[in-house]
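3.2 Worked example (two chains)
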Amino acid sequence: MISNSEMIRIRRQMQRRIHDVVAERRRTRDLDPALSPAAATTGSGADQEVRAADNGPG
């Protein structure tokens, strides 16, 4: 059985990892304009490039 102090240590470690992941996702979202909420409704930049290539000249 895990001791109380070990359980607390594991819980804090998990919370720290979750915090790190959330912070990394927030940084990625803030730095990448293609992932912003406004861009999500119109499609990502990659989708727009594909559409432009499909429509091509002529």
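3.2.1 Second chain
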Amino acid sequence: MAAMSDDEKYFLALSKMGKGSDQHYCVLNINGYCHPVSFHIFPQAGARRNSWIQAIRRDPGPVFNVNKASADNKTMASNPKFCGICDQRHITKPSSDWCSECNQALCTECKDFHALSRASQNHSTIAISNYLALDSSFPQLDEHCSVHDDMYVLFCQTHDCLLCLTCLEDHTKCGDVVRISKLTKDVKTSESFVDTLKSLSDIILNLSKIRYHLEENICDIKKQKDSILQEIAQMRGKINNHLDKIEHTLKIELGNEVDKQCSNTICKTLKDIKKKQIDIEKFRQQMDDLVCYGSDLQTFFSLRKITARINTTDQYLQRLDDDASLNRVSISCKIDRQISLLVEEVASLGTIQVTQTPGQLILDRSKDKQAQLVGVKKNSINDIKLKL
């Protein structure tokens, strides 16, 4: 089918007419209503085609409101898992492909008709699975104005918004309104697109470099932590070993002093005292026995002997007192001042120091550029000519 003029807007549909089989129809938008006409009988071009349009205007035949069709089309687009064209025929069929230019899901059969139609044969379709995968990341654009229910044809760069022909009345003072077709022509091969793609590649590369740099830094920090813990453990081990050594030395010195005082001095004196105490207690018992059983002669000679022993023992006790043998011995330990300072003043084995050095990281820096589409000339609204 030949290309149609602007006032003969159309879209494709599968419609079941009467009791016949499914037919492929071109639906014309004339006077606000859509008129289905079979491709098999619709004139391709010329006067006969114009006469068909005039005939439809005189006798519309089967029609349906274009606003309802637009609403149905939006409903189909909102459920891309099912064929939108079949949905208009109240048939539910799973979709296989998506046409972004028609903004419509297609089943296998409708895709074939879509590819055969001259109006859509140049449209590119993608598998519905790929579209659904992109659905969450790509912006969903409604090609119809929500206020005037007409197709967007212009773009206002001042307000960064799409415009239909009716919306244009509110942007008469805007000096940078351009046609969407001109704005989007060859956009995928434009310098701006290439620069943006290059910038994305550079940023991805830089992010990868920075990520590797940071992850490497984290690994280094963990290794440094393990090294510091090992150093702390080694120092603690050295301190423990040294303390164990000087503790052992001090204990040996303590034991030697205790043995010296107890065994050599106090214990020897105590042994002599115990022996003399036993002897004196025997003499005391002899005195009691002499009183009871001894004769006067026995008592006389025993008294002389006991008196001598008493004098000897008394002299021994006096010597003990004179030569400080009876001095009380006490043992104490004076901890070295350095050890006391270690406990009192040394509050930590060390301090953790954090230093920062410039990272040896070279980033790819894209050239500074203004974010705008290359090749799009800002036209005044007065330069736009409307063709009806």
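3.3 Remarks
The CA atoms of residues 35 and 56 lie 8 Å apart.
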